[in-house]
Amino acid sequence: MSQRGALAGVLLALLSPVLQSFTAPGVASAPSRRRAVARGAAEVDDGGDGAFDRRTALIGGALLAGSAVASAENPQRPSEYGLWGVLPVGPYKSKRTAPAEAVVPGRIWTFDQKFGILNVQVPSRMVVVKLSEKSGGGLFVYNPIAATRELVSMVRDLEKQHGPVRHVVLGTVAIEHKTYCGVFASKFPKATVWVQPGQYAVPVNLPNPLLGFPLGRTKTLPASAEETPWVADLDMKTLGPFISRDGAFGETAFLHRASKTLLVTDTVVQVSEEIPPIFLLDDEAKKPLLYHARDTILQPVDKNNVDELRRGWRRVQLFGLYFMPAAIAVHSVNQAVEERRPDVNPDFAGIYPWDWVGDDRRAFAALKGSRKDGLLVAPILQTLILNRNPVETLDWADAVAKWDFKRVIPAHLKNDVSADGAAFRRAFAFLEEAGEAPGQPKPRDDDLATLRGAEVNLLAMGAISPVPGKLAKNGANRAALVAKTRNGCRGGLCGPLAPAKKA
Q1: pLDDT, tens digit, for every residue of 151-166?
Q2: pTM of the model as a whole
Q3: How far is CA 381 from CA 249, 321, 361, 378, in A?
Q4: Does residue 497 sit within a domain?
Q5: For position 107, which CATH number holds?
Q6: Dist. CA 389–CA 27, nearest whole Å
Q7: Which of 39, 210, 292, 309 is 20 to 30 Å from 114 by CA-CA measure?
Q8: CB contact burial 368-385 (16+ within 10 A = b; e otherwise)
Q9: Phi first, then psi: what are they for 240, rounded to 5°?
Q10: Is 32 within the bounds of a domain?
């Protein structure tokens, strides 16, 4: 195996919890899930049928007990998160929150924390929406982040002005989002918790209460906004869940009609040279950018040099989207250890396991495209997930694109992206035979090498299904693609186009 392949394997192993939330679609157990989806919000769905086996109960109880012990926090550090060990990713115990950004003054606010591995850290974003009186008033929270005392205090300040948190909404099955939902919800005990259909846990598929979702006030998002208390303010549309052998992928997008704002989780992002505020809080916050700004272990970097910080942020995005961009040359393990320089680069014991030998700007430009409204579907979704379900994904994209919006708030990378329905729909052209239009963001083949290699391995393992093909012009082969798509089922819940008999 090549050195690049070895390092890629390590990175993919470290990122496996995140990958499992994508490449392994799934759901919580039991026929009660199917009944809950059918009835929508009419009844509480706590994710199971009440028949917990002893092993499941013991594992879940141990996890909850361990979490309770780990949650002790230093009162002197409001950014400390005692439960960081449940998902041990950077920045670990201290998870600072950037000051709230009023994307739509008096109506929509965003809160960013950092999330990542090996100094590849990107913003993880929570959105708070003020509901109108027709929707019951108060606050609607989309995709909670780590409930530090700092963050909770910020939300309390919003409550004083705009009413209590009434709804906590998890619009995804991805582990980097759902890990924080239950803890956040516990800080607001009067709020109803709504979760994306298809929640799943590995290696043991625990019921929702043992995944941290509050007992007695957790509901599964219904199929239509008409069945929700916020229908006067928000539309919603669910993608998936796409169910595979070991997990699931799903996402629910929301439209805030009054402000023409689209809320999404992971389906689209926009890369940008603009450094997110969460990286500029102080010198400590800049460290991930400075680590990646250097071409070699010995290259000096200046924490006050904006160009170097931007170079670091550009490369962080490349690593975050590709895991292994083509512009790096990976050292052998022995070389990396022998050449380590803690005096130059104190992070990771002074190890810097690659050199930048190619033009990272070219790779970045391809992801950015030439359009100001260019939205990108992350390469991992393009190569491992959504291309397995092209018809369902395009149906969802078509429906969302019909909404009247002028901005998009993704959960990662750039915030408050100026884009409309047409721009959103263009991002999914990779699923069509015609492909991406000129100027549209498009991953380069050489940068996709690591993900292509992962695809081969995952196919061999049976973890993902083969690609059924791309949609022809005017949907001429739609029926053939549907027939070739492997719609998985679990616990009575199946993919959107799965035959009922497969349930």
Answers
A1: 999 999 999 999 999 9
A2: 0.87
A3: 10, 10, 22, 5
A4: no
A5: 3.60.15
A6: 17
A7: 210
A8: bbeeebbbbbbbbbbbbb
A9: 80, -155
A10: no
Interstrand relation of 218-220 and 192-195 (parallel, antiparallel or unpaired): parallel
Domain encompassing residue 173: 39-239
Answer left, alpha or beta for residue 170, where phi above 0 means left and psi between -120 and 50 means alpha: beta
Tokens 């970045």 found at: 364
Q: Is the dihedral angle over the CA atoms 411, 413, 415, 421 positive or is it negative?
A: negative
CA torsion through residues 6, 7, 12, 13, sign? positive
Residue 304's Cβ-count burial label (10 Å; 0-12, 13-18, 19+) is exposed
> Quick check: helix, strand or coil at residue 186?
helix
The dihedral region occupied by 499, where left means phi > 0, alpha psi between -120 and 50, and beta the remainder, is beta
| φ, ψ for residue 432, nearest 5 deg | -115, 150
Tokens 């050489």, residue located: 446
Question: Residue 175's closest CA among 212, 120, 215?
Answer: 212
Q: Which of 463, 492, 456, 486 is nearest to 390 (CA)?
A: 486
Residues 484 and 464: their CA atoms lie apart, in Å, by 14
Cβ neighbours of residue 103 closer than 8 Å, sequence gap 6 or more: 109, 110, 261, 407, 409, 415, 416
Q: What is the pLDDT of residue 76?
A: 63
Cα-atom radius of gyration of the chain, to the nearest Å? 22
140 sits in which H/E element: strand 139-142
Q: Give the integer Cα–Cα distance in Å for 399 and 53.
A: 41
In a domain, 482, yes or no: no
> In this predicted model, what pLDDT tens digit does every residue of 280-292 receive, in sequence order?
999 999 999 999 9
Contact 373, 420 (CB under 8 A): yes
Count: domains in the chain: 1
